[in-house]
């Protein structure tokens, strides 16, 4: 007789930042984990799972991953959206973890095996000014990174996105029980960004990939101008140049610049990127395992992208737990149209709660050979770090108008 799911529980903890983790147990004693973290809205997904999904999982066959995915997605009637798709993702990833452990194989082997030797990752270099950014880029190159995201504080813009508090900890934009108020000013930014790229290229040359996140701040024609002005510095990509939900904005940007475009970390299903892919409006799609319905749905999205020459460039910020990062690396290793993977790392003391078999060397990561995802989750350790309400910031233009953060 096939195994059954005997328990499914949600653990909300805050070892360095908030994480929502789904733990699934089977009648054979196999335990699988999934990440259900949605930064700033963690408890909504925890409730979705606890109140509406976990009870439905009990008694189901854990081997039937696709059927369970369809059951949760179609069965809810209310489709898509970040809360639903993060909850479904957590179940999906936990079941892939179980399947790998049952088979005694790492998940990437179940997905068709490795298509490459390692997963190219990019790290984050940031600075409160350009000299500090240059130091940070240098530190990344010394660590072996071949690709680096560059962000510098725009003069006059308070709390520029992507610049850490420089307290020695990994960048984390969420803080406090109310959103932090930051400012935004497009004109200074558009003049400043090419100078940042110029300074980095002057110092380090063209042998390193440079990426940049605009974080949804521009209009389509402003984004077109940014793309044109950065062309001489050959960015690997500019990310989220305009608010991501308007797919057609990319028609305008595309018509004006050859700078590669990336989008998708806030999008949650294949339907949210259909126009972007089928019209070849972007070069990289940044949807993640944990916010896009899990491995089962993301690999369909990547398969569609492959048909249109679009590569993956998955979101990998610190708010995606080590479980999500491991799942991403397994998929990255297996798909034919892999592009790059974001790697921010996790704040201490996340390592007291999560262990992982993935590794970094010479700019590449590998998920390791442990069965399943290769991630351990210590529930007792997690209990030492209770949930703390933390919100992502808001951004206002100089006249106080609420802008996209
Ligand atoms: C990135 C992202 C993050 C997000 C964060 C929100 O490219 O890594 O933009 O920094 O802001 O994941 O929770
Ligand atoms: Mg981003």
Automatic annotation (TrEMBL):
GO molecular function: mannonate dehydratase activity
Keywords, ordered alphabetically: Lyase
Major enzyme class: lyase
EC code(s) of this entry: 4.2.1.8
Domain Mandelate racemase/muconate lactonizing enzyme C-terminal: 131-260
Classification via InterPro entries: D-mannonate_dehydratase-like, DgoD-like, Enolase-like_C_sf, Enolase-like_N, Enolase_C-like, Mandelate_racemase_C, Mandelate_racemase_N_dom
The UniProt record lists the keyword Cytoplasm: no
Listed NCBIfam families: ManoateDhtManD (NF043051), PRK15072.1 (NF011654)
Name under which the protein is recorded: D-mannonate dehydratase ManD
